[in-house]
Amino acid sequence: GYSSSLGPKLQYTSHKASLYRQYSFLIVFLKGKNQDKKEMTKGQRTSFSYRLPLLHGIMLHMKLKDIIEGVDGQLVWGESHLEDEIKRGFASDLMSDVLTILEDDILLITGLSNNQAIRTAEMSDISNILLVRNKKPSQSMIDMAKELNIALASTPYSLFKASGLLFAKGLKPVY
């Protein structure tokens, strides 16, 4: 379980409804205590700041459509993937690093806009790619993504900013 001086003991469970109720209870509990940064000790502020995003990550999986919206992005190809649940994100321009990932349901966030990114995603069983820095995929990249059923999206933000925004919204990192 997870316990905090700021809230009730939370039990890890795979049942989403239970997690949402526990998270909602924690927020109500904190608001009821009128806990704001001025009233908290430094240790409590640190605990509060770091544990709430962690709770978000435990409880929520983001859909691809929410990810695209969260980074002011556009779907290039893969409308059928918009409802895919993404559990984790991995940001890298080094495809050799991507090949080490053994997770399922992840989003690859990269600035590499060529066929190598698609081939690496295929080998790693990744079905969703977010291109950063306004990178536009070539037609051959789009065709390969269609052939392999891999969604492609693009955002104007940098790799760092896109990753940070998604983490703040609850997307967990691979590690």
Walkthrough of the structure:
The protein contains seven helices and ten strands. The longest helix is centred in the N-terminal third of the chain and has 18 residues, at 42-59. The strands form three sheets. The chain has a six-stranded mixed β-sheet, with helices on both faces. 43% of the residues lie in helices and 19% in strands. Helix 6 (139-148) links the parallel strand 8 and strand 9. Helix 5 (115-123) runs parallel beside helix 6 (139-148). By secondary structure, the chain is of the alpha/beta class. The two termini are 20 Å apart.
Strand adjacency order, main sheet: 4-9-8-7-6-10
Instruction: Work out the helicity level.
Output: 40-55%
Could you spell the SSE succession in H and E letters?
EEHHEHEEEHEHEHEHE
Radius of gyration: 18 Å
Our measurement of the CA-to-CA distance between the termini, rounded to an integer number of angstroms, reads 20 Å
Q: What amount of the residues lies in strands?
A: 15-25%
Tell me, briefly, the overall form: globular
Short summary:
By secondary structure, the chain is of the alpha/beta class. The protein contains seven helices and ten strands.
